[in-house]
Design brief:
GO terms for molecular function: phosphatidylcholine lysophospholipase activity. Residues 44-202 form the SGNH hydrolase-type esterase domain. It comes from Roseomonas indoligenes. The protein is 51% helix and 12% strand. It has helices at residues 2-34, 60-70, 87-92, 94-97, 111-116, 120-136, 154-170, 200-219, and strands at residues 39-45, 75-81, 104-108, 141-144, 175-177. The termini are far apart.
């Protein structure tokens, strides 16, 4: 008799635990659902975003991700930088670069176009095609501007700079960051010996300056 009562008592206690677990499950589920997944930010660029001459951990994508996370942002920055890439190269690989389904994209191309003296009209056409493709997919974009080297002449420099101003005008919903290398270009202490690519300190300065614009971009992103 006592054995039967004991079993019944054990079963009763077990059932009570099960009921409590089940009662708490909806709250746990709501808590899990309330945690948004990290936003995915794609950096479509060239050697500047591909951490040329640096450890990956010192590159722009890694440092930007760390800075955003330090400010409480749930963000994963995807490095889609290819050293030597032009705007034409970025345009040609856009489709597979979007395979990770980013929530927002930083378009950081044009530096190699300027170095090679490519016709600014071609650069504009390529960047326009990229931005139109992102707009068609409802992916928020940031236009990171670039300047041409001064040795190509003042006229070319003006035409090249006008490319990004025109795109800023024609894509008003895109966040505009006028110059990717702002505060770093021409500063010997912030660049590698080639005087083109930022060193780790230069990357830190880039991140410091561009983070507000990136936060503006991410505010437009809507995770699925």
């Amino acid at each position: 008799m006592r054995a039967r009562l004991g079993r019944r008592g054990l079963l009763g206690r077990g059932a009570g635990v099960s009921v409590l677990c089940l009662a708490g499950f909806p709250a746990l589920l709501r808590s899990a659902q309330a945690q948004p997944r990290p936003l995915k930010l794609l950096m479509l660029g060239d050697s500047i975003t591909a951490a040329y001459g640096l450890a990956k951990s010192d590159g722009l994508p890694a440092k930007l991700e760390a800075a955003l996370k330090a400010k409480g942002g749930a963000v994963t920055v995807i490095d889609a930088g290819v050293s030597g890439d032009t705007t034409a190269g970025g345009r040609s690989r856009l489709e597979w670069s979007l395979a990770d389904k980013p929530d927002a994209v930083i378009v950081a191309l044009g530096g190699n176009d300027g170095l090679r003296g490519i016709d600014p009209r071609n650069s504009e056409a390529n960047l326009r095609a990229i931005l139109e493709a992102l707009k068609a997919r409802n992916i928020p974009a940031m236009i990171a501007g670039m300047l041409a080297p001064p040795n190509l002449g003042a006229d070319y420099g003006r035409e090249f700079a006008a490319v990004f101003q025109t795109l800023h005008r024609d894509f008003p919903d895109a966040v505009f960051y006028p110059f990717l290398l702002d505060g770093v270009a021409g500063e010997a202490t912030l660049n590698q010996p080639d005087r083109i690519h930022p060193n780790p300190q230069g990357v830190e300065e880039m991140v410091r300056r561009m983070t507000p614009a990136v936060e503006d971009l991410l505010s437009k992103a809507r995770p699925a």
